[in-house]
């Protein structure tokens, strides 16, 4: 593989050079995706999409009950998140926080690996400065568009591009993270729990977003899903998702328009 500027494009490159006892030289390199490189790739994806009026079909029973679909439906909520999968008896919500089917959208960096969910809330008083929440109020926005909440225990700072970043206390000191990385932690947790439940890789996701999200907020959500390991990502406006869910088990009148 040839290393080109296009290949790197804000990615991190790890280069390893080895010399064995016979003085034979070998090398290897690994290109690591970063938030910036993922943003570049996702922005190009959206830029190449033709803007057309979108229509949605109500899923039929044989589709809903199809276990061969490796996709999940995720409600990435402001305060709580949940996920549904195809089962033989229809769509089923998966327990993703112990036995609970709703995951509080809280992330903590108090341990070596980030943790999320109710456990973070339970420890909030002791580890507030290690905790991030309300990420949907921040992700995809310009720094100056954010209304800083005095109740946030984390610090919102501005990078050189006027984009927000979050400074929190981790087990090893102060760290800075992109908003997309916080959402990615939640989505990665959801993905892991769903795959344990389904017993297979689930690499396609439909994620609901507020109807008022602008292009940057949608791209940022897509970036977070990419970082979480989803290969194919579809964003669906929350009112559309609610309408589809309503009519799954109900007859649709003839010549019916859903506004």
Automatic annotation (TrEMBL):
UniProt KW Nucleotide-binding keyword: yes
Superkingdom field: Eukaryota
InterPro entries on file: ATPase_NBD (IPR043129), Hsp_70_fam (IPR013126)
A single MF term (Gene Ontology): ATP-dependent protein folding chaperone
Keywords: ATP-binding, Nucleotide-binding
Family stated for the protein in its record: Belongs to the heat shock protein 70 family.
Name the UniProt record assigns to this protein: Uncharacterized protein
Organism encoding this protein: Panagrolaimus davidi
Taxonomic lineage: Eukaryota, Metazoa, Ecdysozoa, Nematoda, Chromadorea
């Amino acid at each position: 593989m040839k290393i080109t500027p296009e290949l790197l494009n804000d990615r991190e490159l790890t280069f390893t050079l080895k010399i064995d006892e016979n003085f034979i030289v070998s090398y290897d390199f690994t290109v690591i995706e970063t938030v910036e490189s993922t943003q570049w790739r996702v922005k190009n994806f959206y830029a190449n999409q033709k803007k057309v009026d979108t229509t949605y079909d109500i899923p039929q029973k044989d589709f809903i009950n199809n276990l061969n679909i490796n996709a999940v439906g995720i409600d990435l909520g402001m305060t709580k998140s949940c996920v549904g999968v195809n089962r033989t008896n229809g769509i089923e919500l998966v327990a993703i926080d112990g036995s609970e089917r709703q995951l509080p959208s809280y992330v903590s960096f108090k341990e070596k690996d980030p943790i999320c969910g109710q456990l973070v809330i339970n420890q909030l008083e002791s580890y507030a400065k290690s905790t991030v929440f309300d990420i949907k109020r921040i992700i995809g926005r310009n720094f100056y568009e954010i209304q800083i909440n005095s109740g946030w225990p984390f610090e919102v700072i501005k990078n050189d591009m006027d984009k927000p970043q979050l400074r929190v206390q981790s087990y090893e000191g102060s760290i800075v993270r992109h908003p997309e990385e916080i959402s990615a932690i939640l989505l990665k947790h959801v993905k892991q729990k769903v795959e344990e439940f389904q017993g297979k890789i689930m690499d396609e996701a439909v994620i609901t977003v507020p109807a008022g999200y602008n292009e940057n907020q949608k791209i940022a959500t897509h970036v977070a899903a990419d970082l979480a390991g989803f290969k194919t990502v579809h964003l669906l406006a929350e009112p559309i998702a609610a309408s589809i869910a309503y009519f799954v088990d109900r007859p649709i009148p003839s010549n019916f328009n859903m506004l």
